[in-house]
Amino acid sequence: MLQKPRAHGRPCAQAERECGDPGEEAPSTSRGATGSSQGSRASLAAPAIGQRTQKQLDLKVAELVQFLLIKDQKKIPIKRTDILKHVVVDYRDVYSTLLKLAAERLQYVFGYKLVELEPKSNTYILINSLEPVEEDAEVRGDQGTPTTGLLMIILGLIFMKGNTITETEVWDFLRRLGVYPTKKHLIFGDPKKLITEDFVRQRYLEYRKIPHTDPVDYELQWGPRTHLETSKMKVLKFVAKVHNQDPKDWPTQYCEALADEENRARPASSGPASSS
Amino acid sequence: SKNKRCSLTPRAGNQLTPSLPHFVEEGEEAEEEEEVLTKEVEVGADGVSAMHPDLLELEVDREKCRNIRRHYRQLIYCVQQNREDIVRTASESLTEALEEADVLFDCVSRTREAVLDAQFLVLASDLGKEKAKQLNSDMRFFNHITFCDVLFVFVGLNWMEAECEEFSDCDDSIASFFWETVQKEATSWMLRAETFHYIFGSFKAEHSARKPRLEHHKRSCKMEGNGDMPMKLKKLDLNANQETTEKEVERILGLLQTYFEKCPDVPVSYFEFVIDPNSFSRTVENIFYVSFIIRDGFARIRLDQDKLPILEPTNTSQVDEENDSCSYGRKQGVISLSLQDWKNIISTFEISEAMIKNSY
């Protein structure tokens, strides 16, 4: 059977180094081992700045793609500083090229879009550039806890109630679905943590304290990731579908959703940039 | 819900309306006491103390200010308590509170009171903002309780209402079913990238600490001592397949030669030989094996007078002679057989059993 995978790195990069084939071109400073491998880096031939072969660049881009994919697992936005620190390192001067190439590869191979969470935020997320297809739902494997359902319901609630609701209202609603802030849930575990921490950290929701409230209450709004992964119109359609009604049955929300669609269609001047 | 309206009517002068709660900030009274002159003060019937006019004025001022502060604090407290009503209902209470604060402010001359006024204004403006938000949402069209009910219907659990009072009382499996169904619908409205996982394990971003050498050494020793190691696959044995093929070819050749010996003048119909009427896949396999026999020269395939392929034996001596390979003009042929062809042949030739019996 296969050996246990090494703790660090890409098997090929590791293997390349270990083969120590003198005939082959010296592997780039893309290190198999991460972290405090200062010593190992020094021992490898560091290419002169500006003199990087296509192969080295390709290797770097491949690493960056892998890094982005792994970092996206938790759905927490990826910081530019992390990218520089862990992957790009001494290829800083070509950072934007690397990022652009990585984004292209992600789009071309995986159908994922690398987008900046907010303009000039220097944090990135991956979103699907392919519209979900009904057949996929059957084939889609176990993607962990099914939290999207809960999220979508909350997003629907927020939008239909005027883009903001209080935490009190949320729990008042969710308890009817058997979800409580203090009771352990069969599927969601700690719902309060999920909603007020995890979703917030993933930037699906914004969670702010409402001033002058006693007892303290918080308000929930859509976060930047939500605006990228879905839209007001889509959420309205979801709500409408659940009601078995037409989205136009809620004229206020429908108008708002239409306006949002128009904004999106306009060529964005400060649109999501895939490279900084 | 309580619909208390606090109507504070500050009266001119410095008398407290007795019905309102006496709301005093801790320590302030004590602070005040220190400032007051130790001179005794007599409170007369009209509420004004009898002392030196200048001091009296000072005292009146202080008393007045204290009252103003008390009023403000009461106003703030009142508004906070009735926050829900103010924000949610169409009541005028916020406007009224603002008007009262306005009147109060007319008497304000010192910073301390002005601060409280500012505090109240911040509170009022926050509530005003909340109220405005409520106006935008047009709540009457979207009812969150209805949303809950339609969710159950949407998922297909409308029967459930009769069964259990609260969703939490229900079976775990019902809850799972509910959330899975909602999940399925929800994901079709989001452009979420699937989480990526390596098949053979993940990339640890953190550099795992090197294990102390001693431990590593101990572990390797331990492994050697223990003889039960799984068999390592040193080399992939690809020859296995080839042996099977050869064996099969030999077997089939044997069958063919047996037939040739039994009926030396009757050539074998190719189709009758290879076709297994019970299995299409075995037929294909047979064709495959026979092709080896022909390639190696142990048999010949040609078309008879009816243009049907037949198998003929070759003289074994001829196989070794290279000349004969030329004289016979070895040709390449491609045989394709679809499922339908196979069926057609079986019916046409009335093949009822396979000539090539299986070894298994």
From TrEMBL, chain B:
The record's principal subcellular location, in a coarse class, is: nucleus
| InterPro entries found in the cross-reference section | Nse4/EID, Nse4_C, Nse4_Nse3-bd
State the superkingdom: Eukaryota
Task: Extract the ranges annotated as region (Disordered).
Answer: 1-28
According to its UniProt record, which protein family does this protein belong to? Answer: Belongs to the NSE4 family.
Query: How does it associate, per the subunit comment?
Result: Component of the SMC5-SMC6 complex.
Protein's UniProt name: Non-structural maintenance of chromosomes element 4
Originating species = Nannospalax galili (Northern Israeli blind subterranean mole rat)
Top-level taxonomy? Eukaryota, Metazoa, Chordata, Craniata, Vertebrata
